[in-house]
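HOLO CASE FILE
Compound: iron/sulfur cluster
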Amino acid sequence: MTKKEMICIVCPIGCHLEVEKDEKNSLGFKVTGNQCKRGQEYAVEEITNPKRILTSTVKIKNAHLSRLPVRTNKPVPKDKIFECMTEINKVEVTAPIKIGDIVIKNILGTGVDVLASRDME
Ligand code: SF4
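Model generated. Tokens follow.
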């Protein structure tokens, strides 16, 4: 693996990170450019098991709009995003809905919930 560059998204500072394989390191990677340990953890996870917060909408009945914005409460593995979208697309909720209401609990057994992103009467 050659050096991979990325921007740490853990906090607003946005450090520019460089990651390369390093067999001598207990993590298996050497990370530079990080100002704190969280950046190192982020970089290794981004290389080995990348995840993303997923935002979408679901159908809603009895509301003034036809779609309710939703988002995951934690990042989901990138390779599960397509399957998660398929699950989200099957859902229909009924108003009233409050921001933070759980729309799908533990989606695909990932331990991640899909929550409403806004109130809808
Ligand atoms: S490495 Fe640390 S300081 Fe830099 S952006 Fe990531 S979390 Fe923030």
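CASE NOTES: The chain has two domains: 3-48, 55-116. The first strand starts at residue 4 and ends at 7.
CLOSED: yes
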